[in-house]
Amino acid sequence: MTKNTFYLDMDGVVADWESAAAEFLGRPMRDPDTLTHYRNTVEEWAKIKTQTRFYRDLPLMPRVAELVHLARQYRDTLGWELLFLTAVPAKDDIHWAFYDKVMWAQEHFPDIAVHFGPHSYDKCKHCKAGDILVDDRPDNCSQWRDAGGIAFKVNANDLGSVLDLIAADLRVRVDLKNQRDIALDLV
Length: 187
Known about the structure:
By secondary structure, this protein is an alpha/beta fold. The chain has a single domain (5-186), classed as Rossmann fold, CATH 3.40.50. The chain contains six helices and five strands; from the N terminus they run E-H-H-H-E-H-E-E-H-E-H. The chain has a five-stranded parallel beta sheet, with helices on both faces. Strand 2 (81-86), helix 4 and strand 3 (113-116) form a beta-alpha-beta unit.
């Protein structure tokens, strides 16, 4: 039996890309486009691209410790695999993005390996039926669901919206596992 995987996106889920971009650009982030999630103009993105090591020192998202704790419970209690599933810019125009994302993850969460889409639109290719993705992009979440997975969408750079949903899902899965274990013990 193939084990399921719990995937965590990085930017906007565990790494606070928006705060770093807002600080660098000197302005608060705009509301996202509801379909694409883009918040930066072409000119702003060109400015961000000048920071070739932008991804290396992103701050942690608020409440990320709670999210990662829940994700680790899928791994440790249910036997799931736990991975980061992230993407690099669509035009591969920040050359250190791959390396710096891995270095960032090793610094903050050395027990979670990093996998790449490699691009955002490729993430759904990693989905097996029942796999979970936590992501902040609506298109990634809908494509993940279309591929047979479960997607939890982070809204407005706030993990609070998904923590309760993930905790509830985890409780149901742990309860079912415990019931199966008891049933097996009775046989």
